[in-house]
Amino acid sequence: MKILVLTDTHIRGTTPRNRLDEFPTMLKKKLIEVKDVIEKKEIDFVLHGGDLFDRPDTAPSVVGDFIHILRDFKVPIYTIAGNHDLYGHNPSTLSRTMLGLLNASGIINILVPDDEEIIELKGVKVQLNGSSYHYDLDKSNRVSDYLIKKRTDVDYAINIVHGMLLPRPFPVDLDYTLLDDIKDTEADITITGHYHTGFGVKRLSEDKYCLNPGSLVRIGAYASELKRKPQVAIISLEEDIDISLYKLKVAEAGEQVLDRSQIELNEYRQKKLAGFVQEIKSAGSFNSLGLNDILNELANNKDLDKAIKDEARRRLEKAEERLV
Questions:
Q1: Domain extents in the chain
Q2: Helix, strand or coil for residue 128?
Q3: Which CATH number is associated with domain 2-255?
Q4: pTM of the model
């Protein structure tokens, strides 16, 4: 059995200001190369790590262009919802998004927690689990999304989570989970997206792996993106697990597609933001600047009822829908 893994395609119809090329055109070229790899490597199905779209309400005309390419994959595509696929980072809004539409139409298949998909091909039986992005993912001491139970009647278990799973602590103040924290999972392979730079293939133990090939696109103007070449991963499941990385030939060098002046500007902004965050923390008890995080902290401080917090989140989602 062979599986192709990609993540964070961020399908959109416009070019980010950090890019020097025509972004939608280049993304189509990348996905067409992925299609060719699927055919040449005789891939059985595709796993996508989330953020298929760059926003939940991507224009139908743009979605239509990319649907033709996804259909040409001619193998099943399993995915989860990333934060960019949802309104207000809330999985309950999925039915109102373009990702939800593709799922309802059968073009893709969305994995949901506690409802594993079983695939049996070529004498190999695989269990697929998935967890979309949500408010509490990667919060302190919360690792349940990364921990799954492996059924006794399968050969391999794969878990896909759109979370900030990292091999080492991150220098920037944000929520993340370390590989060391999920060693109790029974998944043979844990796949993540969200962290665009990726970390390739890491071993959790002698027979457990973690995989993040990195985003298929380079949107942020950062030094790490300048050096990175977009890639996909190919998993071969037979008697043993074999994972290889395939760098896309059509992807150009970072210097050709990313605006270096924007990289320098972003580095300056990051330093200023870090100082601002530190000032905010010294003046109060907020641990982040995200709307949902601030809402949670305010609610906890005021000991508000859960129903009130849920209603506040609902109104934030509605406000975001009107803005986008």
A1: 2-255, 260-323
A2: strand
A3: 3.60.21.10
A4: 0.82
